Amino acid sequence: MVQLLPLRRRGETSFVTLTLAERDATTLVDEIDHLQATVRMVRDLWPFELDAWVVLPDHLHAVLILPHRDDDLAIRLSTIKARFAARASKRAMTPSQIAAGGAHLWCVQDKIEQIRTRHDMETFRRHCWTDPVRHGFVSDPHDWPYSSYHRNSRTDPRQTEPLATIRASA
Which candidate among 47, 55, 81, 158 keeps its CA 20 to 30 Å from the CA of 21? Predict the structure, then answer.
């Protein structure tokens, strides 16, 4: 029997959501320094561009762009999850997660959506920036410290006026 595999495009751009197994955990923001160091370490091993991202207490969203001729998003995500779990402090884990060596820190399923158009890219970028507002952590995306909103609003001329639009659409 022939097994059909999904088509994979080289150098693709994806919107990724990684979620902790415990939905009310605050591990990602409690251990933000470890998370950022882990992402940098993985990016050094397997290059990718982090176009936009946001880290909330129990999940993160990211727009990742892989290099041309590279389609292995899975190795990057699994390494980020494993290395972060290994580095996260024991105080940020439940007793069962500690007993499993951090193995049960993350949900098994990652949510990955392919970005195919410029409109998709803008939609997912905006999702990253507005998620802290949607979840009620802040009323303005500028106030959330764990987001690429600050970087992108300085470097992307299209992001100079959208604060009112983002607040209104969130």
Answer: 47
Inter-CA distances, 95 with 28, 31, 80, 103, Å:
17, 17, 22, 12
- Token look-up 């390494």 returns 79
- 16-30 as b/e, with b when 16 or more CB fall inside 10 Å? bbbbbbbeebebbbe
The model carries a pTM of 0.79
User: What is the DSSP track for 69-84?
Assistant: T---HHHHHHHHHHHH
Q: How many CA atoms lie within 13 A of 18 on its CB side?
A: 25
Q: What is the β-pairing status of strands 59-65 and 111-115?
A: unpaired
Q: Mind listing the pLDDT tens digit for each residue in 64-101?
A: 999 988 889 999 999 999 899 888 766 666 666 566 55
d(C-alpha 165, C-alpha 142), whole Å: 13
Torsion over CA: 124, 169, 109, 36 (sign): positive
Question: pLDDT per residue over 103-134, tens digit each?
Answer: 578 988 899 999 999 999 999 999 999 999 99
Contacts of 72 (CB under 8 A, 6+ apart): 46, 66
